[in-house]
Amino acid sequence: MDKSLLDAKLRENPFAQLSVVVQDLIRDDIVSFSLQPDTRVNGSQIAEALGLSRTPVDEAIHALADEGLLVQKEGRRGYYVYAMTRMAVEDLYYARKVVEGTASYLCALHNGQVDIARLKKMAYEFRDIFTSHDYRRLGELDPIFHKLIVEYTKNEYLVRMYHTLDSAISYHNGRLSHLLVESPELSVPSISTQHITICNAIEFGVPDMAQNAAVAHVDACADMLRRTIPLY
């Protein structure tokens, strides 16, 4: 854990809550593999490295546990970095297909309440990631795009359901984008235009096509994840 990163973040936002900044730093280390899966997180070492008391560090650790990025293990003390299991990946992406597919269907059915221009702008930005190889943006753009589609349905139950997936989706996308930065040859270029296909189906009001395109995209992302990230 690098104190200079803490200092830089506090210079950017002097009014930031200290525990939230520490939470961001630990999260970055988890997503970037600096903290390996199943590693025990040592609050005392983090506090010492950052020159802080234990209080903001403990608050950050508990917040990350609430996100699902840190877990407790039966018979062992402390918190450990979450390790993706094959079952967890299958469960998450099945849930994504159900929610995102339904949301895309509803958006195409009621496309008057959808900001198509905003979605298409993001879809083309997503496509350009695969030509510029700026894979750091993948972990940022993909979840925002799908979250917007869910929110455009104005279905409060779908929105709540998707909110429960937020942390897991961000974690998996962050891990995937980090690995693609390191090994760009592992990318699947066909994924790059799938957001555009979803947008077109929504824009032209074809619900079944929108749903099928969303499900196909989630399947393709899950397949790339299985092939590129070590699962436990």
What are the SSEs and their pairings?
Blueprint: H1 3-12, H2 18-31, E1 40-41, H3 43-50, H4 54-67, E2 70-71, E3 79-81, H5 86-109, H6 116-132, H7 138-152, H8 156-163, H9 166-182, H10 194-203, H11 207-228
Antiparallel strand pairs: 1-3, 2-3
Helix pairs in contact: 1-2, 2-4, 3-4, 5-7, 5-10, 5-11, 6-7, 6-10, 7-9, 10-11
Give structural notes:
With 232 residues, the protein is mainly alpha-helical. It is built from 11 helices and 3 strands; from the N terminus they run ααβααββααααααα. The chain folds into 2 domains: 79 residues, Arc Repressor Mutant, subunit A (Orthogonal Bundle), CATH 1.10.10; 143 residues, GntR ligand-binding domain-like (Four Helix Bundle (Hemerythrin (Met), subunit A)), CATH 1.20.120.530. Strands 1-3-2 form a 3-stranded antiparallel sheet. Helix 2 crosses helix 4 and helix 7 runs antiparallel to helix 9. The radius of gyration is 19 Å and the shape is elongated. The mean pLDDT is 90. InterPro entries: GntR_C, TF_FadR/GntR_C, Tscrpt_reg_HTH_GntR, WH-like_DNA-bd_sf, WH_DNA-bd_sf.
